[in-house]
From TrEMBL:
Annotated SMART domains: DSPc (SM00195)
GO cellular component: cytoplasm
One MF term in the entry's GO annotations: protein serine/threonine phosphatase activity
UniProt key word Hydrolase: yes
Record-stated family: Belongs to the protein-tyrosine phosphatase family. Non-receptor class dual specificity subfamily.
GO BP, one annotated term: negative regulation of MAPK cascade
Matches recorded under Pfam families: DSPc (PF00782)
Keywords: Hydrolase, Protein phosphatase, Signal
InterPro entries in the record: Atypical_DUSP_subfamA, Dual-sp_phosphatase_cat-dom, Prot-tyrosine_phosphatase-like, Tyr_Pase_AS, Tyr_Pase_dom, TYR_PHOSPHATASE_DUAL_dom
Record-given protein name: Dual specificity protein phosphatase 13B
Domain Tyrosine-protein phosphatase, chain residue ranges per copy: 164-313
């Protein structure tokens, strides 16, 4: 009896050892254990069908199923934490269907078998092109109204090389001082047909229509003071229309002047370019400054700023 009990205990012990080694071998074949089973108990595997009554392949499936049921155990981590980290290409199809493939930003798994063979990279690129584009929600205005300090800096930095009595700052539009306004020979040489005097008056540049009597030109006078508090803006639109009408005449050439040709006359020329030529204040200053040094006083610059903002709203620039 003692020998029989010993033999029975030995058989039970062999079955337990063989079952443990069988699970280790199946884990190695399933990919969760990279090392092969080298235990000497591997030689006892042929005895499993006799003791358990299951084929070897069914034994593998049973062990794999048991391993998935024990996914929460500490000894064997789950498929999600082990297989994805070490061997993502060995993950079962069921796990791939339940778990989204986050390694591909497009959401397309490389192991899909149902993708038609006729569609290659060209079709994938076309699908990418069909994706809706993201449009920027912030629209930046193409033109920012300049500050007074920036305008003064622009006038000071980009000064002309030299100051003449008269300069052509726009086609057939001349900007000058009182000296050229009194020089009839120079006016005839330039072919001036219209004169705009922004410093008219008895105590300023007192030319007037009588001064040009006998000459083939027209006269337009404005009694303006070179004072920051003088409202020159009331003349912006009338003078701009007059200059435009004069330039539209065949062979029309216009001279706009004041005492020095840098402040009052320059201001109305800038207003003309802004109103009739659709320029911004900065563009008008750069256009005139490229041909003649100008320096409107701070009050005139503020009035031009108001005009720039109003034209910007009317034209949709602002």
């Amino acid at each position: 009896m003692g020998l029989c009990h010993f033999a029975l205990a030995l058989l039970v012990l062999l079955e337990v050892v063989a079952q443990v080694d069988t699970q280790e071998m199946v884990r190695a074949q399933c990919g969760t254990c990279p090392r092969a089973c080298t235990s000497i108990n591997f030689l006892l595997l042929p005895a499993l069908p006799l003791s358990h009554g299951l084929p070897f392949s069914q034994k593998q499936h049973q062990v794999c199923r048991d391993r998935r049921l024990k996914a929460g155990s500490k000894k064997y981590p789950s498929e999600k934490t082990t297989a994805w980290a070490k061997y993502p290409h060995r993950v079962s199809d069921s796990l791939s269907q339940l778990t989204p493939d986050t390694s591909h930003p497009t959401g397309v798994r490389p192991d899909l078998q149902h993708w038609p063979e006729s569609q290659g990279m060209d079709s994938l690129q076309k699908q990418d092109l069909r994706r809706p584009k993201i449009h920027g929600s912030v629209q930046v205005s193409p033109y920012q109204p300049p500050t007074l300090a920036s305008l003064q800096r622009l006038l000071w930095v980009h000064r002309a090389a030299m100051l003449n009595h008269v300069n052509e700052v726009w086609p057939n539009l001349f900007l000058g001082d009182a000296y050229v306004a009194r020089d009839k020979n120079k006016l005839t040489q330039l072919g001036i047909t219209h004169v705009v005097n922004v410093a008219a008056g008895k105590f300023q540049v007192d030319t007037g229509a009588k001064f040009y009597r006998g000459m083939p030109l027209e006269y337009y006078g404005i009694e303006a003071d070179d004072n920051p508090f003088f409202d020159l803006s009331v003349y912006f639109l009338p003078v701009a229309r007059y200059i435009r009408s004069a330039l539209s005449v065949p062979q029309g050439r216009v001279l706009v002047h004041c005492a020095m040709g840098v402040s009052r006359s320059a201001t109305v020329v800038l207003a003309f370019l802004m109103i009739c030529e659709n320029m911004t204040l900065v563009e008008a200053i750069q256009t005139v400054q490229a041909h003649r040094d100008i320096c409107p006083n701070s009050g005139f610059l503020r009035q031009l700023q108001v005009l720039d903002n109003r034209l910007g709203r009317e034209t949709g620039r602002l």
